[in-house]
Amino acid sequence: MLEKINNLLLEVEQLTVNTKDQVEEYRIKWLSKKGQITTLFDDFKGLAPELKRDVGQKLNELKNKAQEKINLLKEKFESSSDENSSNDLDLTLPGDANVNVGSRHPLSIIQNQIIDIFARIGFTVSEGREIEDDWHNFTALNTPENHPARDMQDTFYVSLNPEMVLRTQTSSVQVHIMEHQKPPIRTISPGRVYRNEAISARAHCQFHQVEGLYIDAKVSFADLKQTLLYFAQEMFGKETKIRLRPSYFPFTEPSAEMDINCTLCKGKGCNVCKYTGWVEILGCGMVDPQVLDNCKIDSHKFKGFAFGMGIERIAMLKYQVKDLRLFFENDVRFLKQFTSS
Ligand code: DAH
User: Fold this and answer.
1) Whose CA is nearest to atom 12 of ligand 1?
2) What residues make up the domain containing 56?
3) Predicted pLDDT of residue 270
């Protein structure tokens, strides 16, 4: 038995290992319940009493040395692995790349672009309310009750109070602004509007518009035309042409609809422009003097122009989206294709 102990002592003293796992292997080999040293303690019980003193001493020495060696090696690996990890830590490395980052909604991207374009020529942004009274949505805009022009827009009325509607157009914001601000006024009003329409690829019961309003002592139709040309070229490219067609809106006189040349087929004819080479993008006109007076702005001193466009329409043309419903379904496969610059 002494020989076994001496051999093990030698093994303990000479032990070198390369990994932390090997240290654990030796701990198990020597000191675990069935380890070689533990087993020697069991054998020790059966020794003749006269041998017990010497062997016992040696055995204890072996156990202590083995334990010390294991502890020492363990510590060595633990501290060196700490050192390694702090040396290897590169704080400049990019983080885990598997984080899903959201993107802006295409309608927000287009709306922000429109705001930027008009901000560059001095237009501020004003916001109105989505639940509007009849006066601001219709009557002040020259559309009193029973006026046939109300049929142009199918309206959602608030059932508890039929005086209130979900606004059908952002033109209602014009009225608030003119009631509360003095000219010169130069502002655009983006926002959501509602109409009681059957949902299809080309129509929805909710959509977004941007209204524009400019009021000052001298404002002409030429100013309107130049402002809209600037907008069209900033939005769709420097080569873009515009065309104004006479139209009717109750709150502008004269009124017009504006087309741009079809950017998809470059005028050759396609189904987006219905083979005309032109696509309509907005309505506009000179603010009717009666509307100015309704809003307590002296129509003898001031003139103004106004315009209104659908954000979905602009987004569909810019991104070649064929179905309006996609903007409201929130399918990430659709949404993640759009990036803001
Ligand atoms: N509010 C009109 C609509 O929803 C759009 C519009 C046309 C606004 C002409 C205007 C305008 O300010 O002058 O169809």
Assistant:
1) 307
2) 2-87
3) 86
Angle, CA 194 vertex, CA 122 and CA 173 arms, to 5°: 30
Supply the pLDDT for residue 88.
72
- Same domain, yes or no, for 121 and 174? yes
Is there a single domain that holds both residue 49 and residue 191?
no
Domain count, the chain: 2
Residue 254: asked if its preceding bond is cis (omega within 30°), the reply is yes
What does pTM read for this prediction?
0.72
CA 126 to CA 211: how far, in whole Å? 9
Spatial distance between the Cα atoms of 335 and 102, rounded to a whole number of angstroms: 9
Interval between CA 249 and ligand 1 midpoint (Å): 7
Give residue ranges with CB within 6 A of ligand 1: 169, 171, 211, 249, 252, 283-285, 306-308
Task: Kindly report the protein residue whose alpha carbon is nearest to atom 5 of ligand 1.
Answer: 308
SS3 321: coil
* Co-location of 53 and 145 in the same domain: no
Q: Do 48 and 138 have their domain in common? A: no
Best of 223, 281, 290, 307 to mutate for ligand 1, by most ligand atoms within 8 A of CB?
307
Residues 116 and 77 grouped into a single domain? no
Ligand 1 centroid from CA 325, angstroms: 22
Residue 268 lies in a domain: yes
Contact 236, 263 (CB under 8 A): yes
- Pair 119, 81 in one domain: no
Q: Are residues 40 and 111 in the same domain?
A: no
Q: What share of the chain is helix, strand, coil (3-state, %, to 5)?
A: 45, 20, 35
Q: Is residue 102 part of a domain?
A: no
Q: Is 223 found in the same domain as 75?
A: no
pLDDT digits (tens, 9 = 90+) for 186-233: 999 999 999 999 999 989 999 999 999 999 999 999 999 999 999 999
Mutate to test the pocket of ligand 1, among 211, 249, 281, 290 (most ligand atoms within 8 A of CB): 249
